[in-house]
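Quick review question:
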């Protein structure tokens, strides 16, 4: 028996099996087509899973960052204010690491997560620029500059927040 005879024998066996089992084959093909169509057209909403599994980690990192920046604004002693500000920069970088670790499943989720990562990348960059300016100019109002820059950047974070809230 050569290879062509083997293929011919397999094909005839398959055709005979299909002919004897028309109804099960027909129903299987319909089920396969329907489940394939549903799988390709369904819009999975991962936000409930994201809110439960991912959001607590991100919220913790964000709260640490925003709380320390608020402490820097409240502090009256200049040395402690600078320390809080520098710690805020470190915590912004930590928040960026937490955001980058998480990988949403859907395209919308990945897009929203990229927006949040972009926000923290820009925050990190702005804080680095402010710190550089602080080293050149002792009378520099770094907290006012931070508030101004953050107000501009919050729209980026707002897009992620809009996706999370639905």
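Suggested answer, residue by residue:
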């Amino acid at each position: 028996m050569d290879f062509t005879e083997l293929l011919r024998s397999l094909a005839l066996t398959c055709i005979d099996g299909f002919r004897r089992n028309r109804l099960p084959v027909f129903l299987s093909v319909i089920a396969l087509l329907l489940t394939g169509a549903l799988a390709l057209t369904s819009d999975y909403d991962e936000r409930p899973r994201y809110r439960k599994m991912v959001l607590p980690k991100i919220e913790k990192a964000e709260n640490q960052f925003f709380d320390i920046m608020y402490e820097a604004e409240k502090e009256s002693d200049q040395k402690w204010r600078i320390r809080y500000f520098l710690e805020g920069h470190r915590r912004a970088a930590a928040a960026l690491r937490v955001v980058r670790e998480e990988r949403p499943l859907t395209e919308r989720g990945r897009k929203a997560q990229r927006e949040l990562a972009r926000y923290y990348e820009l925050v990190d960059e702005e804080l680095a620029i402010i710190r550089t300016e602080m080293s050149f100019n002792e009378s520099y109002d770094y907290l006012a500059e931070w508030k101004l820059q953050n107000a501009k950047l919050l729209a980026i974070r707002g897009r992620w927040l809009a996706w999370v809230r639905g």
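Why it works: The mean pLDDT is 90. Residues 3-41 form one domain.
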